[in-house]
Amino acid sequence: MKETPLSNCERRFLLRAIEEKKRLDGRQTYDYRNIRISFGTDYGCCIVELGKTRVLGQVSCELVSPKLNRATEGILFFNLELSQMAAPAFEPGRQSDLLVKLNRLLERCLRNSKCIDTESLCVIAGEKVWQIRVDLHLLNHDGNIIDAASIAAIVALCHFRRPDVSVQGEEVTLYTPEERDPVPLSIHHMPICVSFAFFQKGTYLLVDPSEREERVMDGLLVIAMNKHREICTIQSSGGIMLLKDQVSALTSVPVRTGHFSEVFKDYLVTKRH
Amino acid sequence: MEVVMRADAKVRVESGTESSPRGPGCSLRHFACEQNLLSRPDGSASFLQGVAEKSQERLIRNTCEAVVLGALHPRTSITVVLQVVSDAGSLLACCLNAACMALVDAGVPMRALFCGVTCALDSDGNLLLDPTAKQEKKARAVLTFALDSVEQKLLMSTTKGLYSDAELQQCLAAAQAASQHIFRFYRESLQRRYSKS
């Protein structure tokens, strides 16, 4: 089904409101929507709600042969799917551009930042390594898919436990959860994407755009950062020209990123397993 | 229309309904339901129960087609999208329950509600209602029924494994008894939801 087009009066209304520093849901320029994280019954299953945007994340693992040029490293595989229930426009086969862009950004944020220690996933060098697969499903689209997806991915990875293995010579023994407690993954840091939407050719800026705001925005800047204010990925789309100090000023805005990591720690501590 | 949707969403029940303690003779697991949790689709429901894909889609579709009053909405397409969060046994029955609740939440006219019940027969011939994943694997036969709410008639049945005719009747009777509990849960859940708005 085609997306219903945005009417001109709605577009004008949104842009006028942004000029007057007002947002439809009453937030300020740098305010994030409420984030709620709930966990499923299995390890590695979580649902993240960023306002009304909802992403389901699931992590699974498997023993496989490693890649030829990386014989001592485990394999990480990320996959984000835009479910048809998220928005009427997301039909299978119709969403390729947005899907590719989101998947690429997620991969760069999580894989290239080396937040997961892949060396620790090696069981027998050159023969058996763990392949960790992160599946994300967008259940409801109310703007800012990438932030919700990155939170879901990193929380699911933190929550996940892989089966314990022991190696004796060439023999690998895989223990069931009943025999030995499953082992968490080795995670160095937790990068999260923060999105900035630009309006009126870069004059106005909003953090965490909702779906309506995304429709009228000119450009989007996504910065992936961790608690230590280290930047993992920056992506700017829409042809917005930003000065260097503007970007540095923005990277200091997610003081909230420190807040996120605290939120995760709370959830993981209360989730006593 | 957007304004109306927002008003609805504010009023939506934050937590769903859970099933109350059941009397003796019913060995269904605990179930919980939440409705209208997504803002984009017209109706949505999440069904938690306890805890071969194209063919299952076809079964759910056939069941829905049997109850939905399609003649009232010509040239309309109704899409039911189901996302499995976790599978702890009785998956098809849970999908059927979720589909029914979602159709109700969307306001689609139906001639009856429907529910799904799974029975498993183990090697000794004992009947297990609403089996867990482990019980399903060890069972000799697994039977899933979709029953309607008006007269508990059978809408759809799918079975896997060996069983006798008498055992089939026995499972069907047990499923019909269990469906009463599920329909009562539907009613409570909907009452809870609409009493808050």
From TrEMBL, chain A:
Every Exoribonuclease phosphorolytic domain range: 32-163, 189-247
Top-level lineage group: Eukaryota
Pfam families according to UniProt: RNase_PH, RNase_PH_C
CDD domains: RNase_PH_RRP45
Keywords: Cytoplasm, Exosome, Nucleus, RNA-binding, rRNA processing
SUPFAM superfamilies: Ribonuclease PH domain 2-like (SSF55666), Ribosomal protein S5 domain 2-like (SSF54211)
Entry GO MF terms: mRNA 3'-UTR AU-rich region binding
Residues in coiled coil: none
Compartmental location: Cytoplasm; Nucleus, Nucleolus
Any single GO BP term: rRNA catabolic process
GO-annotated cellular components: cytoplasmic exosome (RNase complex); cytosol; nuclear chromosome; nuclear exosome (RNase complex); nucleolus; nucleoplasm
Family: Belongs to the RNase PH family.
Record's subunit section: Component of the RNA exosome core complex (Exo-9), composed of EXOSC1, EXOSC2, EXOSC3, EXOSC4, EXOSC5, EXOSC6, EXOSC7, EXOSC8 and EXOSC9; within the complex interacts with EXOSC3, EXOSC4, EXOSC5 and DIS3. The catalytically inactive RNA exosome core complex (Exo-9) associates with the catalytic subunit EXOSC10/RRP6. Exo-9 may associate with DIS3 to form the nucleolar exosome complex, or DIS3L to form the cytoplasmic exosome complex.
Name under which the protein is recorded: Exosome complex component RRP45
Organism: Nannospalax galili (Northern Israeli blind subterranean mole rat)
